[in-house]
Design a protein that fits this description.
With 260 residues, this protein is mostly beta strands. 9% of the residues lie in helices and 52% in strands.
Length: 260
């Protein structure tokens, strides 16, 4: 998370009433949003040794056999660029008001999945079931997401992902043409509503973001501050850049240990 914005000024005597009004508005419009993704996930199989009971010469014996178990490999973008415009708006509940926002985002970049380079042992890779995952913390505030566009000019819609496997990234788009070590360019847009805060997870090996708004009083906090900012009465423009060295999680991983 490396960018956050939005808070409402409240009088101390009316703090509880303001909090209730803010909560009611957020429940309808959208709560604070954390945007995460995209993440490329690819199913694969690997060999495991299992012990099964067999009848040998009329006797039950335990026999060790080789079997295949399934898992999911996750790959983050080699490059991710986020560009967006944030439009604030005052909403009222009785005599109280709070600031909410609508944001239009465009995400572009590319993946380059490589099981061998990532140290993931795979005996069979199901490239045809590759998906790109995307998520925001409050789906109630999602207006539109997608479609996912790839370098081959193909478009696929985002749908609900398998909650059991990808609950932390609830939207998924199928993607074709993924191959080991090859570059997969992507782009898609998202329109999201929220309140109080807007945050991003810097999932790219290199992540850049450029945001602008007419909001004149932003608060920039988080793990990474803007490398460029212009704030004035007419609003703000800000840019961020961060690398995988500072984000605290790997470029690729697998749920194999979880499954075992």
């Amino acid at each position: 998370r490396y960018w956050r914005d939005w808070s409402s000024d409240v009088c101390s005597s009316d703090l509880e009433y303001q909090r209730q009004a803010t909560e009611e508005i957020a429940g309808i419009w959208g709560r604070q949003q954390l945007v995460t993704g995209p993440v490329l996930t690819i199913p694969y199989a690997y060999k495991v040794q299992v012990v099964r009971a067999r009848i040998v010469n009329g006797k039950k014996v335990d026999v060790e056999e080789t079997d295949l178990a399934s898992a999911l490999a996750y790959f983050l973008p080699e490059s991710l660029a986020i560009n967006g415009t944030i439009d604030p708006e005052l909403r009222h509940r009785g005599i109280y008001e709070t600031v909410v926002y609508s944001t239009k985002l465009k995400l572009t970049g590319f993946f380059q999945p490589d099981f061998i380079a990532s140290g993931i042992e795979a005996d069979r890779i199901d490239w045809d079931k590759a998906r790109v995952l995307f998520g925001v913390s409050d789906l109630h505030g999602v207006r539109t997401v997608g479609p996912l566009k790839t370098g081959e000019g193909k478009e696929t819609p985002f749908e609900s992902a398998d909650a059991a496997a990808d609950g932390f990234l609830p939207l998924a788009a199928k993607v074709n043409g993924v191959m080991a070590g090859t570059r997969l360019d992507f782009s898609f847009e998202a329109a999201v509503q929220g309140s109080k805060q807007l945050e991003f997870t810097p999932v790219g090996k290199i992540t850049t973001a450029a945001l602008q708004s007419v909001w004149p009083d932003p608060s920039f906090t988080g793990a990474s501050l803007p490398v460029m900012r212009k704030v004035g009465a007419e609003g703000f423009k800000a840019e961020w850049e961060t690398s995988h060295f500072s984000r605290g999680f790997p470029q690729s991983w697998t749920n194999r240990l979880i499954n075992n």
